Amino acid sequence: MDYGPAPESQKEAQAWLDGHQRKFGLFIDNAWSEPAELFASTNPADGAQLAELTQATDADVERAVEAARRALPVWQGMGGHGRAKVMYALARLLQKHSRLFAVLETLDNGKTIRETRDIDLPLAARHFYHHAGWAQLQSEEFADYRAVGVVGQIVPWNFPLLMLSWKIAPALAAGNTVVFKPAEFTSLTAMLFAELCVQAGVPAGVVNIVTGDGRVGSAIVNHPGVDKIAFTGSTEVGRLIREATAGSGKKLSLELGGKSPFIVFEDADLDGAVEGLVDSIWFNQGQVCCAGSRLLVQESIQERFLNKVRARMENLRLGSPLDKSMDVGALVDPVQRQRIAALVDSARAEGCDVWQPACELPADGSWFPPTLITGASTSAAVAQAEIFGPVLVAMSFRTPPEAVQLANNTVYGLAASVWTESISLALDIAPAIKAGVVWINSANQFDAACGFGGYRESGFGREGGREGMLEYMTALAEDARPALPVVEAKAKGNAKPAAADPFAIDRTAKMYIGGKQARPDSAYSAPVFGANGALLAEVGVGSRKDIRNAVEAAHKASGWTGATAHNRAQVLYYIAENLAARADEFAARIAAMTGSKNPEKEVQASIERLFYYAAWADKYDGLAHQPPTKGITVALNEAVGVIGIVCPNEAPLLGFISLVAPAIALGNRVVVVPSEAHPLSALDLYQVFDTSDLPGGVVNIISGNADELARTLATHADIDAVWRHDGSAEGCAEVERLSAGTLKRTWVGGAKGRDWYSAAQSGGRAVLAHASQVKNVWIPYGV
User: What does UniProt list as catalytic (predicted)?
Assistant: First the structure.
């Protein structure tokens, strides 16, 4: 069947641009600045200039942050209901002007009008409706949290308005104010949204929009008056932001690149899978961070399925994005087209088969045809790099375990799509894939109630859902943390090592790796002196090789993650019981090390903390969301993986337990650096662990210099997160900075102390959130 042209009128959008003389200033404090240094915004479909926008300066960013800071008490003083009414008005206005927004977005971005009209605008309005509800319920549902403060938000060009709604809606709902930077290529719908803010009654300074290139983003990231940075964009820029914010105390969420697998099993509905694939990789010209760019198809159906894919590609319509019958629009910019073409050429050079349907590309604008690449090795550039274009790389697998292995063979971990008629197979595969979102028999499903975000080099943090709201809040208990002095790590003794008796028992405390005591690889030891200056013992000085051995042991103990929460709870109870049986011994050790007048209090608190997290182990459940689409979305609280932990010097036993217990309760394995000043009580725990059915490798203890070992943990590629709570401001900043290499999650205490006896500061969901990550599994039902 032939399709005639079905153009969407652009008259209203062009009139709106003309009404602004096609020049825009900055939106700060509910007022427009005069246009200054200008840059062009062009239509990707034909290269025509649409408007000119202002390149913001550092001074402009300063004004925006000051306006946002002044507006905080006003916005928060309106209360949850007051904020909810304003956000509800924004949602209604988005719906009222949806056609104008959709056409303007298509003109500015190049995506088809069907996508902006039917996907982007409804979802954008949905986010403001949904988060208006969170604003209304904030005082009840988030009573133990407060707004972060001034939030800097930076978004990419692929979903300009939708990314704006993902960022601004939860920030406003929580009571924050915003300095927002849209993408340089696609700023026009943000300018239109600024007008809606005034109409909706958003107070001056609550939403500030500054335009320009990466220099503007850098100014926002580095501004000391910004309390949180929320960034969506490339992994490379995400690393720079992680490094720039290290040690600043800024809260950070990053939604970065992806190389998402699209897995088709032999029992799948192949025709349905083909349509899902179209939506997954050719939606928005493949310029989607979660695009299903890696097709993994079971070998028994490979050729049949690929033939169906090629036939469907032949019928994809590529052309004017404003034509409602088009499937594929224009790429955002010629630079993007050149990058995609270079990667496809590299595939040809490597001997891959590159197939493209016969289609005529428009003479003007930035266009690239839908492309299928087969015959690529798993290490090929097109199989590993995020192409960010309409390019699909296909591979085969034989068994479900091989499919999982191939799916996880990437540095990214954003999304995945699984196609099978066997629900048991689908629900077995979904948790095994290292991705923050898994769609079953569907693709690219989004909703404000369901969190979205990734693992590994796809970033950290979630957008949407309850977990997305928490990204814009701070636990009140953090404000109550004491500024405790840091215990001197290298206490000086006044006694020499006793050497008179050649048959004296060796007092060197060994490390604990893989369920066994271990001597340090370096063969060096360091003295540990008591509170009275007497030598208590010597401890091994751990090195990079000891960390390596401990990480290997932790990975071998992956069965702990697969164990039931009930079983993990039982082990924690056993640890508590065995510690209680030796309470006097541990109390004496603590008294000798620290001079504590009441060491029994710390031991008892440690036992209670073990019971506390044993109780949480099988109660930190996920949620089942019911999005507007037909189906449910199950939000699973998954273990992070292998966590490196640097423990505090104060309360050396309780601090150790308070960090290790929540981590292992949720199925993580840990490599722990005990208190550098007082390590003996932690090293004494090996016998407790051995008699408590704790599998070897779940807890590994490496004593030594905290700075050196933390540095190794932060740079180790097979460690998924690092926690540091020893009170070293410089050390915590270094952990955050070095973690940027693999974008591992961090939880650091900075220079402040923590009341380890307080359940509010050392327990609860806020701590468990650091020990887990949310995976949303979309499960459709019905027709």
Answer: 255
